[in-house]
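Standup notes
- DV: blocked on the single-chain target, sequence here:
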Amino acid sequence: MTPPDTSPEASTRDTADWQSRADEAARSVTARFGQRLLFLPGTHLGAVLWPSNRLRNLFRPWHYWWQAHYVDCLVDAGRRELGNGTTPPARFNGPGNPSAGKLASRLVTGIRLRNAFSFVNSYYDDMAWLALATLRLQSLAEETRKPGRRRNARIHQTLTLQFDSASTDHLGGGTFWSKKRDFKNTPATAPVALYYARTGQQAKAQRLVDWLNTVLFDKAQGLYVDGARLNAAGEITVENTIYTYNQGPVLGALLELGGEANLARAATVIGAVDKRLTIPADAVVPGSPPDTRTSILRCDGTGDGGLFTGILCRYLALAARDTRLPEGARATAAELVTATAEALWAGRRTSGEPIFSVHAAQPAAATYPPGAAVELSTQLQAWMVLEAAASLQQKAAPN
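- DV (later): unblocked, structure below
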């Protein structure tokens, strides 16, 4: 595991105003990408690209799960607003604008309308991300003493039925990835397990985690591989690719379930992430001499990959605040989050609202030079990382 970092750069990260930085990321994303769906009042949606023509955006590929993570980011901002008093001046975008929670609710409305008046999608992992985000939105509504909409209950009822149908005994357990029902993988099984755990269905959640541990955990690397399917001979074949973001929801499920074995596995995953999914930070932390280099999480490019590191940071931040874990594992998780956040912040473009890089190890001027189209996924990722860093400065931050 990474030893505690006592360098001046680490001290700067500890004292940085991560809430203000997260607010800047929130304003940047909502201002650049946020728009009504077909100008309909009470709706909100994130454009896939910026700059973007509103009507043209409707003909671009539909990224349901990007929008689900947009909801999650708005809930993060809403939680910080709650901690700052929930008054209009506490809002991330100023008193003349809707609260983050209200904007998230409008976004959920936009998702339903854009998704053909339904929350059901062809991919179970997409639906799991939205289910997790709306659970958090419901909790935020309750804490702000604004009754959550009955719509949220309908979402969870509908999506739970989808998860139940996809979590079968085929291949020994796990959750199917898509309606094709030919592949079970970590991207679907892990967030569904976390959803079950957070909705009081611990037995279902533990069965899914047990399947992940048996079939998709690589003991040599300490990480979870992609998925498994049946080949033509009826044998289970494993897809051994390791993705950064898959480790995040597994970590979340392990923490939510608790217990000695799950917590021990969580600590193992954190150590493996630090060892195998990081790169040196010296290229992006100005003035960092060789003997004070820290590691940052690797990033996975554009498109769907533009979200991966942000998702992992969300759950590393939960681990860093979980006192049931060994102190070393918590310190490592916190350092990975704050170092990655510092790298993204240091590399941002600062003309107007910030634009963040595709890769934490490169400045935004290199990955998004002036005039380049900017993808929503990559900016949501930076926002998630900064929110994760901000959560570490709060006394207590719920899931």
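- Follow-up: Residues 8-391 form a domain with the Glycosyltransferase fold (CATH 1.50.10.20).
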